[in-house]
Amino acid sequence: MSMASTPRSIPLTCSGHTRPVVDLQFSRVMSDGTYYMISACKDGNPMLRDGQTGDWIGTFIGHKGAVWSARMSTDVTKAVTASADFTAKVWDTYTGETLYSFPHQHIVRGCDFSGDGTRIVTGGMEKKLRIFDLNKEDLTGQPFLVSEGHSQMIRNVVWDGARNMILSSGDDMEIKVWDPRSFNQVHSCKMDGPIASMELSADGQYITSTTGKSVYFWDAQTYTLRKHIKTEYDVSAVSLHPNHTRFVAGGSSDLWVRIYDFESGRELEVYKGHHGPVHTVSYSPDGELYATGSEDGTIRLWQTTPGKRYGLWQGDGNEDA
């Protein structure tokens, strides 16, 4: 009597980018049950896609250098991108038009929207954080507030809309927490190396961060360390499943996508699908899939539960594919 084999995970490949994909973000689930995904790429052409299927919706054309970060506003009406062309741009996601272009003095690595979508924060090679107010009548391109608290390059910025706090991190080995009203630093989470990635979990409970072979999970309310997991490889990015049972990790020096048990830190699944290191990973807002972006220029969508009917996956028909 033969045992039924566990369905293999067959990823969907999203083509279109021509250079390494370095950043991904999913939107929240919209009222009609759909959600979206935005990608940043060194080809300078960020893309918007249907989150469930990966189908291309549009490309934001206008940057003259690599795009390092791309984020959507909560209502998905706007996108913001950070680029090596020394600008951050805000886009209309319906028309693809540039709404604002904010000049900087060096490469911009990170960007995000405030919870209400009226402001953006940027950071990068200048070691400065800037807040731009999109509601100001006289948009001269000048920042509303500037902070110079970092001593080295800023790689990641997150605006925690629920608590109205800004998180920033990079090569100076700590996550800094800022009150955007005064732009004073109010907390710090210190790590033991340059911080490659930082993400706020979908429910806002955890800040995930990576440095070297370490993954950290911080309490986003108290900024205390909740979990530290060591791996056997350099971790480029991590995303926590919405139900906190597992997390996905990509490596900066190999081709594997790994799934871990959150409580024990034990490796559960290992997949190879990319032809280059994995730079960015993210779970969908419903937890049914996760996306990975790679040096190979592709985005791949993977099912959390292989064999389940979801999106373009037709269920157990994939088992013998």
Automatic annotation (TrEMBL):
CDD domains: WD40. GO terms for cellular component: SMN complex. InterPro entries: WD40/YVTN_repeat-like_dom_sf, WD40_PAC1, WD40_repeat_CS, WD40_repeat_dom_sf, WD40_rpt. Coiled coil: none annotated. SUPFAM superfamilies: WD40 repeat-like (SSF50978). One of its GO terms (biological process) is spliceosomal snRNP assembly. One of its GO terms (molecular function) is RNA binding. It holds the Pfam family WD40. WD repeats lie at residues 60-101, 147-188, 271-312. Keywords: mRNA processing, mRNA splicing, Repeat, WD repeat. It comes from the Eukaryota. Belongs to the WD repeat STRAP family. This is Serine-threonine kinase receptor-associated protein.
